[in-house]
């Protein structure tokens, strides 16, 4: 417990910063930035970066997951105000939210204060969190949607979720996990999962996003399948400032 005490001070001092990773569409071999995922990083007192997994491991030990999730969410919203007209992807941990109306009130108030349009915001379920109560998750997501926000499911294909469970929560965007994107052009099992997810996603009227794209071969494979959106180091690593454009690197 004592080894994780530092997370209490980090949360109290709000030593959290945001990095931005672009989300793109590809049209006639041109890359268009359609949004940014805002990724939280912790800050040591000397300004060096603490990776998110280390923060959330410590928060879990200290029973501070909700407090850290809330702090990261509010910092992401605050830093989202510099993104003009594009989609803004903000992560949240569903198991940290007990009563949506109470837990999310400060988030919604800040969005209004900063005049960010609700339709720009995509709240992203961190899918590796083991959500046992699907009805509770649906309650949270319906609350988001009733306020004009979109929501996405992250890391689909791994963790608690099955492909068929997508139909229950009806997301706006579904993100194929890195484990199935990376190397998909050379792996038939990965292709099968990617194709199944795409079929279900489009059947719901949602958009399919492939995250973790790192090679042109995988990108071409996913484009041929019919994926709508893409994210990954092939386009850009997370950056302290949102990129304005990506020069055409897809051939």
Describe the structure.
Helix content is 37%, strand content 23%. It contains ten helices and nine strands. Strands 1, 2, 3, 4, 5, 6, 7, 8 and 9 form a nine-stranded mixed sheet that branches. Strand 6, helix 7 and strand 7 (173-176) form a beta-alpha-beta unit. Helix 2 runs antiparallel to helix 3 and helix 3 (65-80) runs parallel beside helix 5. It starts with 5 loop residues before the first helix and ends in a 20-residue tail after the last strand. The model has no long low-confidence stretch (mean pLDDT 88).
In short:
The chain is α/β, with parallel strands linked by helices and 251 residues long. It contains ten helices and nine strands.
> Which range does the strand content fall in?
15-25%
Largest sheet: 9 strands, mixed
> How would you spell out the order of helices and strands?
HEEEHHEHHEHEHEHHEHE
**Total beta strands:** 9
Q: Number of helical runs?
A: 10
First-last Cα distance: 52 Å
Residues in helices, as a percent range: 25-40%
Mean pLDDT: 88
Question: What would you call the shape?
Answer: globular
Gyration radius, rounded: 18 Å
Based on secondary structure, the structural category is alpha/beta
- Low-confidence parts lasting 5 or more residues at pLDDT below 50? none
């Amino acid at each position: 417990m004592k080894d994780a005490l530092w997370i209490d001070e980090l949360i109290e001092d709000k030593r959290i910063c945001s990095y931005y990773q672009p989300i793109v569409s590809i049209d006639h071999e041109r890359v268009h930035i359609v949004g940014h995922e805002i990724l939280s990083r912790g800050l040591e007192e000397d300004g060096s970066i603490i990776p998110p997994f280390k923060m959330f491991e410590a928060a879990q030990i200290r029973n501070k997951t909700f407090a850290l999730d809330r702090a990261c969410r509010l910092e992401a919203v605050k830093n989202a105000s510099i993104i003009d007209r594009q989609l803004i992807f903000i992560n949240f941990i569903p198991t940290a939210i007990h009563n949506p109306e109470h837990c999310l009130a400060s988030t919604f108030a800040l969005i209004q204060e900063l005049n960010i349009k609700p339709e720009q915001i995509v709240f992203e379920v961190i899918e590796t969190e083991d959500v046992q109560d699907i009805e509770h998750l649906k309650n949270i997501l319906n609350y988001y949607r009733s306020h004009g926000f979109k929501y996405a499911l992250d890391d689909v294909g791994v963790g608690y979720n099955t492909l068929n469970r997508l139909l229950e929560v009806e997301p706006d965007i579904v993100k194929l996990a890195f484990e199935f994107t990376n190397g998909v052009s050379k792996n038939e099992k990965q292709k099968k999962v990617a194709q199944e997810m795409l079929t279900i996603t489009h059947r719901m009227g949602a958009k399919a996003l492939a995250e973790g794209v790192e090679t042109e071969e995988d990108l071409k494979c996913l484009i041929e399948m019919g994926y709508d959106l893409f994210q990954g180091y092939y386009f850009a690593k997370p950056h302290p400032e949102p990129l304005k454009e990506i020069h055409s690197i897809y051939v």
